Amino acid sequence: MSKERQSFYEFGPYRVDPEERLLLRDQQPIPLPPKVFETLLILVQHSEHVVPKDDLMKTLWPDTFVEEANLSQNIFVLRKALGESAQSPCYIVTVPGRGHLGLGEIEIKSGHTDEGRKYLAALEKDARAAGFSLIARKAALAHG
User: Minimal CA–CA distance to 74: which of 113, 42, 119?
Assistant: First the structure.
């Protein structure tokens, strides 16, 4: 596996690795469902701006009709993963009638994400031991 330099985002104790599709806290992976990770990535990439609900929904579920409750559930799961709640937000603020605002100073950095690669390698090893393959799953995650 080559060690390419890539960009990732950091805020507070968190690191978002878009290539490996991982959220890390203090170098430990926090598992997120794929759509929840995509929600996080959109908010991080548009930090300091309100992302309208409709834009989030169209980006997350293109060509599909979904209820607003799906987005609300993604935000709920994401807040839980970040250790916050709607009543005491640290990173995600809901702007009533408009959308969501990703708070906090986001730093874009380049570098290696060895933690993410080690985590995926351990998952692959466990899956192989159980008779499964993550190759198709990784490809599916990469393509949304």
Answer: 42
Give the C-alpha separation, 99 to 18, whole Å. 22
**Alpha carbon 35 to its chain's center:** 8
CA–CA dist 127, 70 (Å, integer): 29
Exposure class string for 90-128: b at 16+ Cβ within 10 A, else e = ebbebeeeebbbbbbebeeeeeebebbbebbeeebeeee
- What's the rounded Cα separation, in Å, for the pair 135 and 95? 39
Residue 142 has pLDDT above 70, yes or no: no
Cα–Cα distance measured from residue 97 to residue 41, given in angstroms and rounded to the nearest whole number:
22
Give the confidence band of 59 by pLDDT, cuts at 50, 70, 90. very high
pTM of the model: 0.70
Confidence of residue 60 (pLDDT cuts 50, 70, 90): very high
Between CA 123 and CA 33 the distance in angstroms is 15
- pLDDT at residue number 8: 87
Please, which residues have CB within 8 angstroms of residue 43's CB and are 6 or more apart in sequence? 51, 78, 92, 100, 101, 102
